[in-house]
Write a structure and sequence with these properties.
The complex is a heterodimer of chains A (about 200) and B (about 150). Chain A has about 200 residues and is α/β, with parallel strands linked by helices. Chain A is built from eight helices and six strands, in the order H-H-E-E-E-H-E-H-H-E-H-H-E-H. Chain A has two domains: about 100 residues, no CATH class; about 80 residues, Winged helix-like DNA-binding domain superfamily/Winged helix DNA-binding domain (Arc Repressor Mutant, subunit A, Orthogonal Bundle), CATH 1.10.10. Chain B is about 70% helix and about 0% strand. Chain B has one domain: Butyryl-CoA Dehydrogenase, subunit A, domain 3 (Up-down Bundle). Chain B is an all-alpha fold and about 150 residues long. The chains are: A alpha/beta (about 200), B mainly alpha (about 150). At the A-B interface, helix 1, helix 2, helix 3 and strand 4 of A face helix 1, helix 2, helix 4, helix 5 and helix 7 of B.
Chain lengths: ~200, ~150
């Protein structure tokens, strides 16, 4: 029996080692173009952000109150199951976001992967993307711009489903009376972003 | 059943695969073969039809990679894992056991690891190695016999 027992002893320390080797594996997989969805997280004034980048561009920005497991599962289902925590493909996205939060960048120069956006929301978010840094538009104005002047509520819903908040600036769309109205990431975040852009005065 | 995100699959299986490879190919070669195993899994992943028993699927790939590794090493005729790793130099008996393990024929070595490191049943070992259950039993038996002989 002794040899059998001793064999198990030869594997000491492998759990720790396997985590390091898994990281090198992800590096190689990235080099070989096998990572279809690269995910990384970063700190920001609106809490930890998760960013997901595909071969065609930025597909997702998620706030920390969305459960990570569910975000991963949905990306796997809707984009590709080859999804890994790989920082390198997200470097540019994270740099631009950091510059934005530091007040050094007023527009993003990033390719977007719009596959998570439905057809109606695509029109809404495209119109939203034309509202520049430090400006705002109303739900009604966006509805009018996409030729659906009677659908400001549908516009609100489409904005609420924005998979790429901050970069597609749905926080710049406000109520007709000037109220902030609503935000997928919660009103305090909308307030923080609009304050950062100089639309609102710091409290 | 939908495929889990690859990251979840990797986190769930990396420990077992590394444990298997460490003894099956040796501590110095385990990292390389680990990467080859998961790269092969990642390549095949989107085409997988069945999300059940992914743990066995990746062990099957690892077993194949371990056999390939030993074949290539034999062709080079250099024992690639002959250098004992640093962690085990304090333990004389471990070094002795490593030496003995290295001398096993690859299929016996792999079968012994499946049975006595991962505690797999013979039916599964047979499936992982593409052999009959009887052959799996024989491989484990002969492998252990030889280890006992070498350790005496």
């Amino acid at each position: 029996m002794k040899v059998e027992r001793d064999l198990k002893r030869l594997t000491r320390g492998t759990q720790q080692r396997s985590s390091e080797v898994a990281r090198s594996f992800i590096e190689r997989a990235t080099d070989e173009g096998l990572v279809d969805v690269a995910v990384a997280t970063m700190d920001s004034p609106v809490g930890e952000l998760l960013v997901a980048v595909t071969h065609s561009g930025l597909a997702r920005v998620a706030f920390e109150d969305e459960e990570r497991d569910r975000v991963f599962a949905r990306l796997a289902r809707e984009l590709s199951p080859r999804i890994l925590q790989a920082a390198r493909p997200t470097d540019r996205v994270r740099t631009e976001l950091e510059e934005y939060f530091a007040g050094e960048r007023s527009r993003f120069d990033l390719r977007l992967d719009r596959r998570l956006i439905g057809p109606f929301a695509r029109d809404v978010l495209r119109a939203t993307g034309r509202v520049g840094f430090g400006r705002t538009a109303t739900y009604g104005q966006i509805a009018a711009k996409i030729g659906r002047p009677t659908a400001p509520r549908a516009v609100g819903r489409a904005l609420g489903s924005n998979p790429i908040p901050i970069v597609i600036p749905c926080h710049r769309i406000i109520g007709a009376s000037g109220g902030l109205t609503g935000y997928g990431g919660g009103l305090p975040r909308k307030r923080t972003l609009l304050t950062l852009e100089g639309v609102l005065l710091p409290e | 059943m939908a495929l889990p995100p690859f990251q979840v699959f990797l986190d769930a299986n990396r420990g077992t695969v590394h444990r298997f490879l460490r003894v099956a190919v040796g501590p110095n070669e385990a990292d390389d073969v680990f990467q080859e195993t998961f790269l092969a899994a990642l390549r095949a992943y989107p085409r997988l039809r069945n999300a059940a028993s992914l743990d066995r699927w990746v062990l099957r790939i690892a077993s194949r990679k371990a056999i390939d590794h030993h074949r290539a090493a034999r062709r080079r005729a250099v024992p690639t894992d002959a250098v004992p790793d640093r962690a085990s130099t304090d333990h004389g008996r471990d070094d002795e056991l490593w030496d003995a393990v290295r001398r096993l024929p690859p299929r016996q070595r792999i079968a012994v690891v499946h049975r006595h490191v991962l505690d797999l049943p013979y039916s599964e070992i047979a499936e992982l190695m593409g052999s009959t259950e009887q052959t799996a039993r024989a491989n484990v038996y002969q492998g252990l016999e030889q280890l006992r002989r070498l350790m005496r």
